[in-house]
Amino acid sequence: MDFRPLGVDYSLKSSDSYQDVKLRLHHYLIDRIDIERVSVGDMGRNELSDFVLGKVSQYVAEHRLPVSRHEMENLSREMVDELTGYGPLEELIRDDRINDILVNGTRHIYVERAGILSKTDLRFIDDEHVLRVIRRILAPLGRRIDESSPMVDARLPDGSRVNAIIPPLALDGPCLSIRKFRKDPLQAGDLLAAGTYSEDMLTFLEHAVSKRCNVLISGGTGAGKTTMLNVLSRFISPYERLVTIEDAAELQLGHEHVVRLETRPPNVDGRGEVSARELMRNALRMRPDRVLLGEVRSVEVMDMLQAMNTGHDGCMSTVHANSPRDALLRLEMLAGFSGFQGQDVTLKNMIATALDLVIQVGRLTDGRRRILAISEVLGVQDGRIVTNELFVYQPERKVFEATGLSPANPKLRLRDDDQAVKFHRSW
């Protein structure tokens, strides 16, 4: 499957001679702009395109380059992108089919669409070219990147997430990762049509959210955790007040009453940081009906668990883990990092009473995303957290199955006559 934008001669664009022409043409344009005192910022896109096309035509004629009209128009368009946009990334950013853009140095640009990574034939001129684009992306955000601060995490105005890391930390040249923001967030019906879950699972999850169950969504990178959190939030009553906490705001809840909070990294002097833990504590003073923590990854885990245990039902969060079991173990580990001084069994009881459901999501080898398991958290028995697996995905047969076990938690039962089961799985 070809994910490259249409109408582009990639065989030409990827050649070294073409890149050399681009480099020389770029310097030529900058010189002409300086000599003629042209204000690029005051020009509209069409006016700038006409100006650049004229200069490209002039340069091609002066140097007698064997360039066709089509190639010259491509060069002109790319030069406009160089002057005002993000260079070779401009067309990728405009392509709504692409979810992720990954730049590994100058010659390797990958895109991800429908869960599949594909290498493009686009490339940068040199390391300085990559750095220039990275700085252009970061400039409106008030962020900087240089040798003294060689890593940066940021959010574009449209909500897209950006991460950049440069030498000396990145050994093969500057690297850039962009997780694009969907203008139209996926709905529950979209995921159902894509086979992310079955109708029975969707009905169950909608019921669980409406009953204000505390939910933890677990999965690996790119598994669809945030998308699942977005979809579940659509089942929340419009009369409830939500507070969201994220490192980079990307939740699209479509809810009328939402307060969105975002952490802040330290400045260049190491000051001004506002952590998720601080925001979590502040959120509980804002009279929330529910708190949605974009991802639990550090010491804020204790504040989240305390909120879930003190009347803030219906909270949701995500965590990086490979299974429901690993998700609960990770919460224990993060609680240890937070300085929890109590006994292990006390911590396990806190986790077990706080959480109602763990939803495990994953990305299959073909790029498709699925709910792999839905597990109810029951309690603690013999010093272990005990769960009840309600739904599971069978990859061999590519089907979803209900395990046949009824929830022990009355809030999770779709019918009052469902019989609660005893302990099913523990660790």
From TrEMBL:
InterPro entries: P-loop_NTPase (IPR027417), T2SS/T4SS_dom (IPR001482), T4SS_GSP_E_ATPase (IPR050921). Residues 84-360 form the Bacterial type II secretion system protein E domain. Pfam families: T2SSE (PF00437). It comes from the Bacteria. GO terms for molecular function: ATP hydrolysis activity. Belongs to the GSP E family. This is Pilus assembly protein CpaF. The lineage of its organism: Bacteria, Pseudomonadati, Pseudomonadota, Betaproteobacteria, Burkholderiales.
